[in-house]
Specification:
This protein is of the alpha/beta class and 842 residues long. The protein is globular. The relative contact order is 0.15. The chain has four domains: 60 residues, Single Sheet (N-terminal domain of TfIIb), CATH 2.20.25; 279 residues, 3-Layer(aba) Sandwich (Rossmann fold); 218 residues, Dimethylsulfoxide Reductase, domain 2 (3-Layer(aba) Sandwich); 138 residues, Beta Barrel (Barwin-like endoglucanases). The protein is built from 27 helices and 30 strands. Bound molecules: iron/sulfur cluster. Its EC number is 1.7.99.4. InterPro entries: Asp_de-COase-like_dom_sf, MoPterin_dinucl-bd_dom, Mopterin_OxRdtase, Mopterin_OxRdtase_4Fe-4S_dom, Prok_molybdopt-oxidoreductase.
Length: 842
């Protein structure tokens, strides 16, 4: 149901997993409201929500303008060569309204005629008939596994669920995975192994506020989710914020240097500028009030695991562990203790460059904050910086081991957590679009799980396929021909892409582009001509967040409502409708339902999740709406259908009079593990791990580390944020950060055009001098395509357990694109000016 112009609709930001609360108000008389035919751009206002407390970052403030992007896709598009005579558009025009800038499918496809054919507008019937016909033909000739599906961590819970069901029951393919494999797989694998349950934060984010210390590894919160920074104010005030990052990021500057008393204001100002853009910003609230106290550790890229092993070594060597907790609540301690004995601080310093004094200081600081030593609490948190590694699962495991040794997980006010990145990165991995899972976070190779879900779907459990290939391996397997051009039987020859821009976001992107080009059929659901859509045979226009109903699950496991405020433009449709239409065309029986009402889909999802680790069976859209209307704090999974005993700490705080009445409804589970962990014996598993190092380490022909990351103004592949003029003005092009010492040494001045070359490819961008990076390391953000696409050089080596690629570190050479023949003025980022000559560089 559409909103009335002028009436705010309470929803959430479309971007990251913080899912900041916002109100969307359709403007009176604006297009997109009732009766209008083109999209509206509602007014965005922040609202008070526990994660953002009234703050938004620049992306959130400007999020609505994406809805009115000038190149919004409003009709289905198909390569002209795939159409029969009767299906050709009657207007004889190629392309579609606003088609300027669209390119033909580049060379490389197996089908030459199709490859050079333009995308032309067609009706939904023509597009869907064509897709269904081709999928059926490919499956009939090559088997069901020849059709693959790639989902996204930004899809609603309902879409993720429907996509998984469609793949397993209609396509009957095992080959479905999603881009969350790039983001959260190692954290998920580590938490599942140690705790038996994977929920990014097993506690409300606001719990961090009471902590005396927070160890933050590989997360730049101040740029990726600025309103979250306010929850670190308590730790900062106590001098307990520890940031581990090879760069002195905006978040690392929040930790400051205790020896530098004047740093607090500068840090708060830096964050305010980064997030404010002249507007109120959640990062400033709280963050600015705290003194900047803490520690920044800047290890050699790829050595975070050694740092964690060293911290645990110190904790054990100095008798700081919580022995009673370890005895009562964990298994495996002795093995872990033996393994970290080999990581004494001096050895860690040799490997990581982190001084022994800093290691000891941080270990003592964390221990002092732990309840066992009378502290008010401590948290260990990991992010993509340490997880996107071939030893990502091991690093998460080491972080959990450290937290367990200090007695933190499963205690109110302390714990371990992983900071989920994508908007529905949590829910997206719970409901069945992951290669090895069924809804409710069930394992697809578990007979009981298969039987339960098959019963909900009304199919034979034996008809469900088994586990498929994880994302990177799936992408490598694509194509009618192998990388040498030889016909390749048994590989996926058709791919459906939902909510992913693989051409920009996948590692070793050049290889991915080749694989996509070799498909018989590429179908992309998108709302703008993303780089991946430009390669497609069929592009299906889809609705955006403010145009649809559904649910998301935040980084805390809080299930929240997304609500429609405006009408979608043209003929854009929800993926729920597209899936239902394809299922019907592919001959799905009536008993195999694919409802299009998100509330009905959610009810089925809830039944399918019942009894699983991520149990949503006590939830519905109506209950979530009622909870919110009642001022409730939201509902955290698991929420079983029936109330059961819950400890006092699990019950959300009373926020209205009606909350005090007894209820048969389960109140949800804000804090996991208070009584027991999710393992069979209820104890957390400590697992010994060891440091090996990155798969692509520095060497003479690639002597520098490349680390990748994000900037505040852009999100993921930039498909959305590059279409926001306000954001694009602030950061319009890719850049490479390098230390001035490195710049002088290799002859790359500030502002020069620089080239990074790895074993996979090369990328070019503008050099920016800064002393915030190590002299052995360069940093490049990943939001751009083409020559500035850093994933052309990243490695697709993966973690052996999680399948997560090693985005965060690889070896590169750094060189000038155009070597100047004369003196080059260099204005460096440290505020000095100078003249850099070629002689200086040699
Ligand atoms: S922090 Fe994340 S959810 Fe909040 S406004 Fe920014 S992008 Fe949106």
């Amino acid at each position: 149901m559409l909103a009335t112009p002028g009436t705010p609709v309470e929803s959430h930001c479309p971007y990251c997993a913080l899912q900041c609360g916002m109100s969307l108000t359709p403007r009176a008389g604006a297009p997109g409201t009732a009766g209008a035919a083109v999209p509206g751009v509602p007014e965005v206002q922040p609202r008070d929500f526990p994660t953002n407390r009234g703050g938004l970052c620049q992306k959130g403030w400007t999020s609505a303008s994406v809805l009115g992007a000038s190149d919004r896709i409003t009709v289905p598009l198909v390569r002209r060569s795939l159409l029969t005579g009767a299906d050709h558009p009657t207007d004889s025009a190629d392309g579609f309204a606003g088609s300027a800038g669209w390119s033909d499918r580049p060379a490389g496809s197996a089908d030459e005629a199709r490859r050079v054919s333009p995308l032309v507008p067609v009706s939904w019937d023509v597009a869907l008939d064509l897709v269904a016909g081709q999928l059926a033909g490919i499956a009939a000739e090559h088997g069901p596994e020849a059709v693959a599906v790639f989902g996204g961590g930004g899809l609603t819970n309902e879409k993720a669920y429907a996509l998984g069901k469609f793949a397993r029951t209609v396509l009957r393919t095992p080959n479905i995975d999603y881009n969350g494999r790039f983001c959260m797989a190692s954290a998920a694998a580590g938490m599942n192994r140690s705790f038996g349950v994977d929920r990014g934060l097993p506690f409300p984010l606001a719990d961090l506020g009471g902590a005396q210390a927070v160890l933050l590894l590989g997360s730049n919160l101040a740029e990726t989710m600025p309103p979250a920074v306010q929850h670190l104010a308590g730790a900062r005030a106590a001098g307990g914020l520890v940031v581990v990052d090879p760069r002195r990021s905006a978040t690392a500057r929040l930790a400051g240097d205790p020896a530098s008393g004047g740093q607090a204001g500068a840090n708060a100002s830096a964050v305010g500028q980064a997030g404010g853009s002249g507007r109120a910003d959640g990062a400033g609230a709280g963050a600015g009030a705290a003194a900047a106290q803490g520690v920044h550790l800047a290890p050699v890229p790829g050595t975070d695991l050694a740092v964690l092993l060293g911290l645990l070594h110190v904790v054990l060597a100095e008798g700081l562990a919580d022995r009673a907790y370890l005895d009562e609540r964990t298994t495996g301690f002795d093995d872990v203790a033996r393994s970290v004995a080999a990581w004494w601080p001096e050895r860690v310093e040799t490997v990581s460059g982190v001084p022994t004094a800093d290691l000891r200081r941080v270990a003592r600081l964390l221990a002092a904050a732990a309840p066992v030593h009378g502290g008010t609490g401590a948290y260990v948190l990991t992010g993509r910086g340490v997880e996107q590694s071939t030893q990502g699962t091991a690093t998460v495991t080491a972080a959990i081991n450290l937290a367990l040794a200090l007695g933190l997980p499963g205690r109110v006010g302390s714990g371990y957590g992983a900071i989920t990145g994508q908007g529905n990165g949590q829910g997206g991995r719970e409901h069945g679009q992951k290669a090895d899972q069924l809804p409710g976070y069930r394992k697809i190779d578990d007979p009981a799980a298969r039987a339960h879900v098959a019963a909900v779907w009304g199919v034979d459990p034996d008809s469900l396929p088994g586990p498929g290939l994880p994302a990177v391996q799936l992408l490598k397997s694509l194509g009618a021909v192998d990388p040498e051009g030889v016909p390749a039987p048994g590989r996926p020859r058709a791919l459906l892409v939902h909510g992913s821009n693989l051409v920009v976001s996948a590692p070793n992107a050049g290889g991915v582009i080749d694989r996509l080009r070799s498909l018989d059929l590429l179908v992309v659901c998108d709302f703008v001509p993303s780089e991946t859509a430009l390669l497609a045979d069929v592009v299906l226009p889809v609705t955006q967040w403010a145009e649809e109903e559904g649910t998301m699950t935040s980084l805390e496991g809080r299930v929240i409502r997304r609500r429609a405020a405006v009408r979608a433009p043209g003929e854009a449709r929800s993926e729920l409708w597209i899936i239902a239409e394809l299922a019907r065309r592919l001959g799905a029986p009536e008993t195999l339902a694919f409802p299009t009402d998100p509330a009905v889909v959610f009810d089925e999802l809830a039944r399918a999740s019942a009894g699983g680790p991520a149990d949503y069976s006590g939830l519905s859209h109506a209950r979530l709406d009622a909870d919110e209307a009642d001022g409730g704090p939201g509902l955290f999974w698991p929420v079983p259908a029936q109330a059961e005993h819950v400890s006092d700490a699990q019950v959300p705080p009373v926020t209205s009079a009606s909350d005090t009445s007894p209820t048969a409804l389960h109140p949800g589970t804000p804090r996991l593990f208070l009584d027991r962990f999710g393992t069979p014996d209820g104890r957390a598993r400590m697992v010994a791990v060891d440091h090996v190092g990155p798969s692509d380490d520095v060497r003479p022909d690639a002597p520098f580390y490349l680390v990748t990351g994000r900037v505040l103004q852009h999100y993921q592949s930039g498909a959305q944020t590059h279409r926001v003029a306000e954001l694009e003005r602030l950061v319009a092009e890719p850049y490479v950060e390098l230390h001035p010492v490195l710049g002088f040494r290799i002859g790359v001045p500030d502002g020069a055009r620089v080239r990074l070359t790895s074993a996979r490819g090369r990328v070019e961008a503008t050099a920016r001098w800064t002393d915030a990076v190590r002299p052995d390391t360069v940093f490049m953000p990943f939001h751009w395509s083409g020559v500035g696409s850093v994933n052309q050089v990243t490695t697709d080596a993966t973690d052996p357990i999680s399948g997560m690629p090693e985005f965060k570190v690889c070896a590169v050479d750094v060189s000038m694109v155009d070597v100047p023949a004369v003196d080059v003025p260099a204005a460096d980022a440290l505020g000095r000016r100078g003249t850099l000559t070629k002689e200086l560089s040699t």
